Amino acid sequence: MNSWAPQAAGVPPQPGMQPQSPPPYGWNPPPAGGPPAAGHTAPGRPRVWLWALATVVLTVVAIAITAAVTYAIARAGSSTATSSADPAPPTYTAAEQADARQAVCNAFDATTANQQAQGGVIVDGQPNVPVMLRKSAGAVTIVQALVPATPETVTASARQYVTANLNLLNAALGQGSLDQIKNLTDSTNDATSALADACGLPK
Fold first, then answer.
1. What is the pTM of this model?
2. Integer Cα distance of 41 and 62 in angstroms
3. Which residues pair with 127 in a beta bridge?
4. φ, ψ for residue 126 (rounded to 5)?
5. Residue 93: CB partners within 8 Å, gap ≥ 6?
6. Which contiguous run of DSSP H or E holds residue 127?
7. I need a labelling partner for 160 at 20 to 30 A (CA). Which of 7, 32, 93, 195 fits?
């Protein structure tokens, strides 16, 4: 029952009661409290948990990628410094180079097998978490497989492949435009083909 009610004309207020002023024009009393009727629910918020989950998981993976890349750069810098101190650069036998090439190519083959069947990094406007994780793991695996004995043709293609995939993942996590993600996907596909050619693997 509302606290305000119009008084009958000509009836004075009761002793001990304060006169009440009428509510402003257009004011309606609020509905009585209580749970909403059955079958009626408040509109839900847009679901963002999938993006949040993907961001958290891939952030952890990105830290691992950064650590692996940093380690590879430091190792390469150490090798360069050692080489400059020696009059003759290090040489590797054909067998050592073949083994190093095979290690990178095996890592590439294992991390990309049947990947096209899993779709792109974005599917129906949502992050394709399995593909993102696989691309991240593949980048880490290939970077760790690179050694000074790896032939330059394979090393250059592998670095291009890792860079292209990281650029694509960063755009997908940053909710880049569809055109941007499409262009980066094309670049990733080109880098994948180049590394497959360097390894002698089918595309």
1. 0.62
2. 40
3. 122
4. -120, 150
5. none
6. strand 126-127
7. 93
